[in-house]
Amino acid sequence: MGWHGYLALWCAVLGVVALVGYGRSLAGMTREQRMVRVRGRIERVRVPRHGGSRRGGIAVVVSYREPSCGARVVVTNDGECGEMITAAWTGREIGVRYPRGRPHEYRFSDDPQAGGRGLGPPNAALVLMYAALVVAVSVDRGWPWALVGVCGPWALVGLWYLPGNVRDTRRRRERLASMVAVPGRIVAVLRDVGTDAEGGTSTTITPVVAFTTREGMDVVAHCGSGVAEPATSYGRELTVHYPADDPAGFVLDHAARERAVRSDVAVTVVFLAVVAAAAVVGLLLI
Hints:
This protein is of the alpha+beta class. It contains 4 helices and 10 strands, in the order αββββββααββββα. The strands form 2 sheets. It has a 5-stranded antiparallel beta sheet with strand order 3-2-1-5-6, with no helix packed on it. Strands 4-9-8-7-10 form a 5-stranded antiparallel beta sheet, with no helix packed on it. The mean pLDDT is about 90.
């Protein structure tokens, strides 16, 4: 069997995976769809220890109501518990999900309404099948077909995405403009040492900021960016800007975030122009 035969077999297998996956999703039988999803409420928050690790996120105690009996359940985020909680305050709602009949396998998510349809595997199968076909056509008919096959779909996706990106950028600019400024303080600096495949080590520094909103909520959160010289920032006073409806969306360097938002549409337009030009070049060379 030549390589065309192997390609046909590859595409057939991926096609079956995609069909089975979409069928299970339509029937509501995927793992994600069979999850029990409830809203949890953070009851207690523990400030991370200075010099500790960021692994596991901020330690919290979460309560929720068991849908089947209405009993109140209290759990913690010790161990592997889904999404890492990086911003917490008493009263914050988060999502809790677990397989039906196995509440001890609970997982957390920042979005209380988060939930998928289990379309990841079938979508990945379609992408792999399409990539195999593009490679096959490019080998048989020449490299310009690779430009068309790769850049053409990206250009179409970019065109579809651009209007939404413009609207989203406008909303983010308005959100930044309406943020509330309050004083904050770095209450801990976390250090994690990792080892790469070659035996080298790297250290990740994560400052932890604490601030009180104007509504009186005491927020503790990891700082992904916006802290100058984070390794020596312990005890530093700073200004925190946060949206009134969601303190987890806080920023520390407000000006830098505004510049990033303004450049977002420009980056999308440049990317769209490049991939569209590449697809046109491929068409002209075919």
